[in-house]
Amino acid sequence: MKVFVHLFGAAREKAGRHVVEVEVRPPAMAGDVAAQLLLHHGELGDLLRTAAIAVDRELARIDTPVREGSEVALLPPVSGG
Amino acid sequence: MGLLVEGPLDAAAVEAEVRTPAAGAVVVFVGTAREETGGRRVVRLFYEAYAAMAEKRLAEICEEARAKHGALRVSLRHRVGECPVGEAGVVIAASAAHRAQAFDACRAAIEEIKRSAPLWKKEHYADGSSWVGQGS
Question: CA separation (Å) from B46 to A59, B43, B109?
Fold first, then answer.
């Protein structure tokens, strides 16, 4: 299934877009999405090692389920305030 | 919803939201864009948000800070988009029966924003730019 991953900050700039698409086999977890990003979006580089993943607007763990239509986001280390 | 704001923040309006006759103290924190960081001259900041998640997280942060420190009300606004040097990037107001609770709640909210709100700051310099904490 296709999963759309929203990008922010330096990750968005490095990829040159707000959203990238990855293909994962169901039943999928957040870790599978991260692995596909590493494999197919090497331009994200070291950010993939420091970023967190959110699924449906909550911070995810490596085993958080990702379903068809889940909202997945790659969150670089935050720096608000 | 509506805790993220494009354009200048109104600190007085945030303060007004936490005023209540039960309060003996109101503390307002204003985080402003500094002109210098690590020896480099900053000309402006740019804030990016994962808006849907940030709105939710910021509301949670207000409630957590209020409950944890026994404050009466906590409210905030965070800027998104361009923020010129000297202008506010974040405003937090906390009211409480006594000053210690208001100070503590306000402090807890800003520290938690910096720790966990999905917001990102880019510093623009005279000669370049970089995302804070993202190694680029």
Answer: 24, 10, 21
Does some domain include residue B17? Answer: yes
Residue A54 touches partner B, C-beta closer than 8 Å: yes
Judge whether A81 is closer than 8 Å to chain B, CB to CB: yes
Q: With respect to residue B136, please indicate whether it lies within any of the assigned structural domains.
A: no
Enumerate the residues of chain A whose CB falls inside 8 A of the CB of residue B47: 80
pTM recorded for the entire structure: 0.95
pLDDT at B62: 98
Domain tally for chain B? 1
Strand boundaries in chain B, DSSP class E? 4-6, 25-32, 36-37, 40-49, 73-84, 88-96, 119-125, 128-131
Q: Residue A79 is nearest to which of B53, B54, B121, comparing CB atoms?
A: B121
- What is the ipTM metric for this complex? 0.94
Are residues B47 and A12, on separate chains, in Cβ contact within 8 Å? no
**Which two tokens mark B67?**
């409950």
User: Tokens for B93?
Assistant: 């107001």
Q: What is the pLDDT of residues A8-18, one digit of tens each?
A: 999 999 999 99
Summarised one tens digit per residue, pLDDT across range B93-118 is 999 999 999 999 999 999 999 999 99
Domain that holds residue B61: 4-128
Q: Flag whether B74 is in a domain.
A: yes
What is the SS3 assignment for A2? strand
Q: In a 3-state reduction of DSSP, which class is residue A81?
A: coil
CATH number for B62: 3.90.1170.40
